[in-house]
Amino acid sequence: MSRTEDHGGERPGNGGSLAHRVPDLGALELLLAVARVGSLGRAARELGITQPAASSRIRSMERQLGVALVDRSPRGSRLTDAGALVTDWARRIVEAAEAFDAGAQALRDRRDSRLRVAASMTIAEYLLPGWLVALRAQRPDTAVSLLAGNSTAVAERLLAGEADLGFVEGLTVPGGLDSAVIAHDRLVVVTAPSHPWARRRRPLAAEELAATPLVLREEGSGTRQVLDAALGGLARPLIELSSTTAVKAAAVGGAGPAVLSELAVGEELGMRRLVRIPVQSVALARDLRAVWPTGHRPAGPARDLLSLTRG
Amino acid sequence: MSRTEDHGGERPGNGGSLAHRVPDLGALELLLAVARVGSLGRAARELGITQPAASSRIRSMERQLGVALVDRSPRGSRLTDAGALVTDWARRIVEAAEAFDAGAQALRDRRDSRLRVAASMTIAEYLLPGWLVALRAQRPDTAVSLLAGNSTAVAERLLAGEADLGFVEGLTVPGGLDSAVIAHDRLVVVTAPSHPWARRRRPLAAEELAATPLVLREEGSGTRQVLDAALGGLARPLIELSSTTAVKAAAVGGAGPAVLSELAVGEELGMRRLVRIPVQSVALARDLRAVWPTGHRPAGPARDLLSLTRG
DNA sequence: CCTGCTCATAAGCCCAGCTTATGCAACGCG
DNA sequence: CGCGTTGCATAAGCTGGGCTTATGAGCAGG
Q1: What pLDDT score was predicted for residue B274?
Q2: Looking at CA atoms only, how far is residue A24 from chain B in angstroms?
Q3: What is the mean pLDDT of chain B?
Q4: What count of CB pairs under 8 Å joins A to B?
């Protein structure tokens, strides 16, 4: 009985879900603390728990992973070689969690925040959380609120005085707003590694791209606009989906070639879940801009955030 | 009472540790499942739990974050706007956890694995987990074991027949091994954003770099070797630390400029915790190579993995 | 030799998350 | 129009993981 039965989503051969095989955030934070301070007890104090709790938690993490992580000695604890590696991998999870937390907090703080940001989806998804983490490190007491929407919505909020700083990714800047380019983005053509295009040697020609049915965002999205403009309104949809995520999932699943922001596919390219297909002579670049009401040069917290965004 | 007291490591103004503010992995996986299948009940079934469990878990996640994540209706559940954003951020955590899991499994499987990999630290830390995730997606039943060490150790394992495929990042290929370049890496000079160099307009000259005390890895490390070679053995240490992580931490903390692999600082640059300082006329590039015993061209699982590594 | 640091073990508490058993609302179909 | 199906919510009860306090044992240094 129990629930060992393999339902739909479970890949074969993995005993239970990720959550059962990966230590929880608390344990990972503890491990990082141990690595930093070199002692279970002091790490425990740093996290506000007792030494036995830390000891037991590290031990159960070692049991779970099947690997010794720390070398205990009467004079402290050091990471084993495997432990150092695990700790580095753990740090990635914790950093992602920090970004999540910063973003979530901004989503919640809505009311009494000192800095109200409006951002387009792509920027809110991929860039903003990192900026918020950095901002929090610099100015821990700046409460930020975030509102995500398309370029028009961002402009409205700014002009209505309901937001202090905006971020957009269109080809044009909405009227009534000043802007500064903070980064560049590019649309890229991607396929699953199994797709024939992944084995091409020569870059794709614009006509080939225009002639091929693609997995795309819906008409009206920023991404789609740029693509249509670049191809002269010719983009041929295989499927139209309403979120970047859905498009990625379809592409990973082998539905067909997709066109997506470079920002959106970084992770997937790194993990080789998607392969980037070079394209020739198609202008797929676009600017990412910070925007604010004409004249109202960002000051205070808005200026702090803005200065973080241009590295 | 309880433990609200702010001990050393806690930044002010954050109520408790990350783990208390970020939903656990199980909840995040559940959220992703709900987003995918559009129903609490079906998501629950997919994860092998009951519908009330899923319902309660999503609800408590919403309470924790202070944001409504899903719109429930008698015909299913769809993400709210905020929910879509949160789900995207959650996906990053889950992906990091998948990489962690793939790595940890390789660390454990030591014995009966079909593919034994030996890799240098930098590659094991930053690249390999992603490759393993991709490999698992392609060939779910390939058990991989991982041994991390320096170039010499990698070569030894391969030549002793204790590893099937190696990855090194040196300037030279150890004797007795064939190799293929799989990627390029570059050392970069980084500082905390507060460092004077961060506000420089002109690239750093080689002499300035050589004349400045730097935060460095210990002598003998791959990174250090490349730097010394590039500067003509002149690198002047401010501190010498024994792990990439420690170097990063020192640099982030403002100890001084550091020289690190591009791979190692990607995250920090994105979050603006570190700033990259352009350098002129210093050859800091290096190749990342797959290696194997001369003649034993990789086959089977080794070949699968190898083909994943050249995107 | 005692004091102070480290970690380990034991016994007990508490809450988060699970289960089963319900109820209620909306849709589609004979 | 009632019936079955699908989807979510609520209630009551169990269990285990993680916490606490209390204690012991190994090693270093004044």
Answers
A1: 87
A2: 7
A3: 88
A4: 224
Residue A55: the pLDDT is 97
pLDDT computed for residue A171 by the predictor: 81
Residue B203 has pLDDT above 50, yes or no: yes
Q: What is the pLDDT of residue B269?
A: 82
Tokens of B172: 């030279």
The whole-angstrom distance between B86's CA and the closest CA on chain A is: 7
Which one has a higher pLDDT value, A301 or B109? Answer: A301
Tell me the domain boundaries of chain B.
18-93, 184-287
Over chain A (311 residues), the average pLDDT of each successive run of 10 is: 36 66 97 95 95 97 96 93 95 95 89 88 92 89 92 93 92 89 91 89 88 87 83 84 85 91 83 85 85 92 89 58
In three-state form (DSSP H/G/I as H, E/B as E, the rest C), the secondary structure along chain B is CCCCCCCCCCCCCCCCCHHHHCCCHHHHHHHHHHHHHCCHHHHHHHHCCCHHHHHHHHHHHHHHHCCCCEEEECCEEEECHHHHHHHHHHHHHHHHHHHHHHHHHHHHCCCCCCEEEEECHHHHHHCHHHHHHHHHHHCCCCCEEEEECCHHHHHHHHHCCCCCEEEECCCCCCCCEEEEEEEEEEEEEEECCCCHHHHCCCCECHHHHHHCEEEEECCCCHHHHHHHHHHCCCCEEEEEECCHHHHHHHHHCCCCCEEEEHHHHHHHHHCCCCEEECECCCCCEEEEEEEEECCCCCCCHHHHHHHHHCC
Q: Which CATH architecture has domain A18-91?
A: Orthogonal Bundle (1.10)
If one looks up domain A184-287 in CATH, what number appears? 3.40.190.290
Nearest residue: Cα versus C1' of D11: B52
Please indicate whether, in this complex, the C-beta atoms of A271 and B108 are within 8 angstroms of each other.
no
CATH no., domain A105-181+288-309: 3.40.190.10
| pLDDT at residue B311 in the model | 57
A210 CA to C7 C1' in angstroms comes to 66
Is-same-fold flag (A105-181+288-309; A184-287)?
Answer: yes
Q: State the pLDDT at residue A311.
A: 58
pLDDT, tens digit (0-9, with 9 covering 90-100), for B253-273: 888 999 999 888 887 887 678
Q: CA A214 → C1' C29, Å?
A: 38
d(CA A105, C1' C12) / Å: 37
Q: Which of A22, A91, A193 sits opposite B25 (nearest CB)?
A: A22
* CATH-assigned architecture of domain B18-93: Orthogonal Bundle (1.10)
Interchain pair A13, B140: CB under 8 A: yes
